[in-house]
Amino acid sequence: MLVEKQGGALKLAAINRAGLSLGFKTGMTLAAARSAVPHLLVDEFDPDADERFLRRCSAACEIFTPLVALDRPDGVLLDVTGCAHLFGGEREFCDRVRRRFAARGLSLRFALAGTPDAARAIARFGATAIVPPGADEAAARGLPIAALGLPPETTLALARAGMRSLDDLAKLPTKPLSARFGGTLVTRLHRILGWEDIRITPLRAPPDCLAERHFAEPLSTLPSLFAVLERLAGEVTLLLERQGCGGRLYEASFFRADGAVRRLRIETAQAGRDAKSLLRLITLKIETLADPLDPGFGFDAVRLAVLRSEPLAEREQALEPDTAEKSDEDEVGALIDRLVARFGRERVLRFVALDTHDPARAAATLPVMSRKRFSPPSALEQGGPPPRPLTLFDPPQPIEALAEVPDGPPLKFRWRRVLHEIAQAEGPERIAPEWWRDGGHAPETRDYYRIEDGHGYRFWVFREGFYEDGARRPRWFVHGLFA
């Protein structure tokens, strides 16, 4: 049994079957429980561990349907509409759910009903496991008031008013009931009785399309697994073709016989629906895993889902498929896909230009698959010289400069022991620090110059500070080189 501290006292938070048989109830103090059983063994209640375990249970249930939601603190809701026949009918479906959890040493109470609220209430307080279609109201009317899940004070008030079951409440007019106990009571009553339906909100958004295989005997060899993945890739690309779309983000899910679920995501640089290319990426992903894909006692099911797709126009097919030429964009996209599959999404980066006047912040790197976009800087005039060099030094390198006038461009400067005589200079471009980002550590204002020496080498230099300040002598730096 588990205990937690409440109001300065240790109280029972979770009770096993042996404790229930002794009459223990949640909220009972540990002292009272040990007065009845002196050598009672308890452990500390860990809500976070319960949450993690509940999420693992929900992942194990995705073998039956992709629409799975948590019913905290100890339940899972499955939307199995149109799924039961895939497992041999509702009875066989429920038996398979029970066997899957029994294999992990768990027992469960469950109910199959027309609405999520009816299923929840009947599973917790009823005796019927499978409610026939259209019989939710008849099965729910005999449930106790506690099935509404209302606060204890509301449940007590209803009991004092002579309400013992949902049937008693269903006979009362709705408006006086709502005025006395609030609209929540009426809403929950209608949903449990099946008068109102609301869909569950799954933990994971449903995929755009999917294909899956369930096995009568667990699949335990990787060659057989790759053969199944090949067929699933063909089915998924066919579904995408019917929708006129191409996949950008795929997920392969492997459901082991012990309830563990392994998921692998494959993201592509551009939308596509080529089964062979998709299979190559999946194979490459599996082969380069740091934690190898372990079948354990075998896989009960394999699913390939498209999590994100985009419209994809039809392309003219060549008479000889092997001689069809690929565009440079296709070649680069295929290379990116292979690199991401081998090294991971966060290790394949692209450069983006940022719209800022600070040269140190003018560029950044993002994962090449990132969908985040930035506003690019203003386009250069056609034929005009670049205002900033492509090569920047980090940090800028100090130089010794001599200027004709204090705030003018340098006449010559010494950098790396080489003296450069200036032939041409353009500027200044004054760049003030972004004080709203740098706070109290903002650098001084800089005057930048584009200069060219007598040998044709071009530099981007700046003077930090002004002579009229008097605090300290301004310093010169070379920040970049023009090609």
Question: Which terms would index this structure?
Answer:
Dna Ligase, domain 1; alpha+beta; 17 strands; 483 residues; six-stranded antiparallel barrel; four-stranded antiparallel beta sheet
SSE blueprint:
Blueprint: E1 2-6, E2 9-14, H1 17-21, H2 30-36, E3 43-44, H3 47-61, E4 68-71, E5 75-78, H4 90-102, H5 116-125, H6 136-140, H7 152-160, H8 166-170, H9 174-181, H10 183-192, E6 209-219, H11 222-243, E7 245-256, E8 261-272, H12 275-287, E9 299-311, H13 328-343, E10 349-353, E11 363-367, E12 391-403, E13 410-415, E14 418-431, H14 435-438, E15 446-453, E16 458-464, E17 475-481
Helix pairs in contact: 9-10, 11-12, 12-13
Structure commentary:
The chain has about 475 residues and is of the alpha+beta class. It folds into 5 domains: about 45 residues, no CATH class; about 80 residues, DNA polymerase, domain 1 (Orthogonal Bundle), CATH 1.10.150; about 120 residues, 2-Layer Sandwich (Dna Ligase, domain 1); about 35 residues, no CATH class; about 90 residues, no CATH class. It has 14 helices and 17 strands. The strands form 5 sheets. It has a 6-stranded antiparallel beta barrel with strand order 12-13-14-15-16-17. Helix 9 crosses helix 10. The N and C termini lie far apart (about 75 Å). The model has no long low-confidence stretch (mean pLDDT about 85).
Question: What's this entry about, in short?
Answer:
The protein has 483 residues and is α+β, with helices and mostly antiparallel strands. The protein has helices at 17-21, 30-36, 47-61, 90-102, 116-125, 136-140, 152-160, 166-170, 174-181, 183-192, 222-243, 275-287, 328-343, 435-438, and strands at residues 2-6, 9-14, 43-44, 68-71, 75-78, 209-219, 245-256, 261-272, 299-311, 349-353, 363-367, 391-403, 410-415, 418-431, 446-453, 458-464, 475-481.
